[in-house]
Amino acid sequence: MNLIEVTPERLLSRELNQIETKNSPKLLYVSGSMKIPLPQPRCAIVGTREPSDEGQKYARHLAEFLVKNSVTVISGLAKGIDTEAHKGAIESGGQTIAVLGTPLDKFYPIQNKELQKEIMQKHLAVSQYKLGQVVHPGNFILRNRTMALLCDASIVIEAEETSGTLSHAWEVLRLGRPLFILGSVFERNDLKWPEKMIKYGAIKLNEFSEILEWLPSSDSNYELPEL
Fold it and tell me: 160-188 burial string, b = 16+ CB within 10 Å, else e?
């Protein structure tokens, strides 16, 4: 394993502002072949671990679309939407970043062991946990916050009311990053979170091309405004 320790500032090639510092880990552990600092633009694709067939297809197609537009795909390597996003990016010949809720020497879910190994060799895996550290359920909430820090924008494909995905989405909004929610999510009458997030600035995504209007160019670094 080619592991290095790096600060979030080093990964992003800029100082963190006051808003970002609140939930940022002091140190990250990374493994892979991707150059540091991270390339821009970067977009997270996230969602439920139990997606519908339609959700899986959307995740794959969206990853392919982003890759074709020179966007690096970020996700959390969970089963379901995350897995489809990573695989879609890889199969389309693009780059992907996996932000883990475990140390780099552990695999969760176990069925993604080979996928994680591939990402650690040919792409980039990021963890805020030291090798050998015990894994707790709360790790994945903290992982979601770190993933929000590392992305320039994020898209929620599908998520239930109690989904851990929502912790990532709220953190994206708190950081002032663009948060997109797939339009089909709004067709479900049993979900309250989409409309709540719209009130806080989330964007209903009807066409994939809308995402590109909100992403930075490949040679830019931006600073979020101070509160």
Answer: beebbbbbbbbbbbbbebbbbbbeebeee
pLDDT digits (tens, 9 = 90+) for 166-221: 999 999 999 999 999 999 999 999 999 999 999 999 999 999 999 999 999 765 44
Backbone angles phi, psi at 6, to 5 degrees: -150, 150
Burial class of 204 by CB neighbour count within 10 A (0 to 12, 13 to 18, 19+): middle
CA–CA distances in Å: residue 216 to residues 46, 70, 102, 198, 222: 20, 11, 30, 22, 8
Nearest-angstrom CA–CA distance, 31 and 210 = 32
69-86: per-residue pLDDT in tens? Answer: 999 999 999 999 999 999
Assign 3-state DSSP to the chain and report helix, strand, coil percentages, each to 5.
40, 15, 45
**Cα 72 off chain centre by:** 10
Rounded average pLDDT over 162-168? 97
Q: How many residues does the chain have?
A: 227
Q: Which of 220, 211, 178, 179 is nearest to 40 (CA)?
A: 220
Domains of the chain and any CATH numbers? 3-212 (3.40.50.450)
Q: Which of 105, 55, 97, 57 is nearest to 77 (CA)?
A: 97
**Token representation of residue 75:** 């996700």
pLDDT digits (tens, 9 = 90+) for 75-133: 999 999 999 999 999 999 999 999 999 999 999 999 999 999 999 999 999 999 999 99
